[in-house]
Amino acid sequence: MAIEPLPIRTVESPGFDDQRPGTSGLRKRVTVFQAPHYLEHFVQSIFDCLPDLNGKTLVLGGDGRFFNREAIQTIIRMAAANGVGGLLIGCGGLLSTPAVSCLIRKTGAHGGIVLSASHNPGGPDGDFGIKYNVGNGGPAPERLTDAIFARSRELSAYRIVDSPDLDIDRQGVDRVGAMEIRIIDPVTDYAALMETIFDFDRIRDLVTAPDFSMMIDTMHAITGPYAREIFENRLGAAPGTVINAIPKPDFGGQHPDPNLTHARALAAAMFGPSPPSFGAASDGDGDRNMILGPRFFVTPSDSLAALAANAELVPGYAAGIVGVARSMPTSRAVDAVAQRRKIPCYETPTGWKFFGNLLDDGRISLCGEESFGTSSDHLREKDGLWAMLFWLNILAVRGIGIAEIMREHWREFGRCYYARHDYESIDAAAAGRLIERLRARIPALAGSQLGDFTVTLADDFCYADPVDNSRSEHQGIRVVFGDDARIVFRLSGTGTAGATLRVYYERLEVRPQNQDEDVHRVLAQLYAIAESLAAIREHSGRDQPSLIT
Ligand code: G1P
Ligand code: ZN
User: Fold this and answer.
1) How do strand 477-481 and strand 485-491 relate by DSSP bridges?
2) Quick one: pLDDT at residue 316?
3) How far apart are CA 528 and CA 549, in angstroms?
4) DSSP structure string for 469-528
5) What is the reported pTM?
6) Which domains are assigned to the chain?
């Protein structure tokens, strides 16, 4: 029987000029997205920039934050009106960001739409976001996000069908007009992928051993169901190992960002009197991770380096890793591993989209960012639970604890003491002036002596992609003191209010007897140098950072 096409309605849009995607998609306050036509305008702009969309399948899901369900229904109606052939939707409208990437790759979908503002708070007064991922499973490259923004500035109408809300809470196949909709379990395919990478038998032996305990904090966010299935059901960890496991639209009123400040319950347990052997947390949409040992915090930069150094212990990487990449502000700890192993190490701008080409071209196996993101060529997003499983697999094989592994690592490669200072929601114009002033000082900096340090390089980081030769300029001001130390200044591309200044500090210590110092004491002189270079207090109007990670 022929399917009657649904009548398509063309709706005039008032026009919006603020839909420029940032580091990771378009992020705004929920109230902005709730304004009439706002979401529809952006979704139409995405569809208009996908010339081959007709008849194709898209993956659709989000982290369950407030407005997720409404947005899913709107996108279903718009997809039907724009000739999309099929939608693959996580039951309840839920899919973690890595699971979207996994599904796009596994099913050969044309792309996917992720509804998330990652680690930003949710709820009616929180943030919402939308991001398009392309056929390799990764975030749209800059040329596409630029095109979407350009389209959003000229668009005056969007297409939608009138259809009742679809039941997204029941698995199965449905239709809206000619478009087929499959509602699938959000966890199954992702968990299956993890089983192909890691030695689940060995990890099960570790986590069920009587002297081993762990705590996984999923922060009332999307990875709750994933972590329960993988750690508790498949690996046999004790029930209750996963805490804050039920995704809530407002993340329980918390900030779903896995760091020592926001993952409070976990941090309290891991630094308390009888800490579990392993602790980890993931963020709103499941792509970030924090790894902890008993009273021991692994910086994300160190985590990437340790994964690279131990990769061959994991079945999925037993054949060796071909290369690594890190975002520019990430510490150079992984560079030392790459150098020793004689494999390439790429330095990319902040944001996961820059790793896509390197992964697709087979140049790297592992990559990561200082902002609690690590992943590999198994998909094209960062992947929080993957990082936890990677660590557990290493622990299972090596039979020693996290702190021992890291201390051994530092003895071999040196320790990069590292900290990031964020000045959140500061005046955007003043933040711009701070960066301008630094930029103006760059030419005079090289060769100059600042305290104990000599500047060997000062620049505004520009990245030339070795695969497609595209260039990305103004990616952050670097002040480099040889291998010894480095300070990086950049403005966030994910904030939704004012500007956020991020200042990144690192200092290398190769002497083993000096590798157990307090990080802020070691970096104190660099903090003072940054203040003298950038007048942070004056420009930010703040005496101290609002967040230190
Ligand atoms: C931040 C992080 C960056 C990460 C992005 C998305 O971007 O710094 O590493 O890729 O969130 O999770 P920023 O706000 O610094 O532009
Ligand atoms: Zn995230």
Assistant:
1) antiparallel
2) 98
3) 18
4) --EE----EEEEETTTEEEEEEE-SS-SSSEEEEEEEEEEE--GGGTTS-HHHHHHHHHH
5) 0.95
6) 8-185 (3.40.120.10), 190-413 (3.40.120.10), 415-548 (3.30.310.50)
Is the pLDDT confidence value at 499 over 70?
yes
Residue 408: CB atoms within 10 A of its CB come to 14
Mind spelling out the 3-state secondary structure of 272-320? CCCCCCEEEEECCCCCEEEEEECCEEECHHHHHHHHHHHHHHCHHHCCC
Closest ligand 1 atom to 500 CA: 14
C-alpha 68 – ligand 2 centre gap (Å): 15
Find the helix packing angle between 38-48 and 142-154, rounded to 10°. 120
Q: Which residue has the tokens 């697999």?
A: 393
What is the pLDDT confidence band of residue 2, given thresholds at 50, 70 and 90? Answer: low
Rg of the chain's alpha carbons, rounded to an integer? 23
Q: Contact, 63 vs 115, CB < 8 A?
A: yes
Minimum-distance ligand to the CA of 289? 2
Read off the tokens for 486.
Answer: 């480095």
Q: How far is the CA of 119 from the centre of ligand 1 (A)?
A: 10
- Cα–Cα distances (Å) from 369 to 128, 242, 351, 364, 390, in that order, read 23, 25, 8, 14, 16
Q: What is the DSSP string of 329-351?
A: TS-THHHHHHHHHT--EEEE-SS
Pair of tokens at residue 384: 């929080």
* 147 and 154 Cβ atoms separated by less than 8 Å: no
Please identify every residue whose CB atom is under 5 Å from ligand 2, which is an ion.
118, 283, 285, 287-288
* Rounded CA separation 467/63 (Å): 32
Looking at the annotation, which residues are catalytic? 118
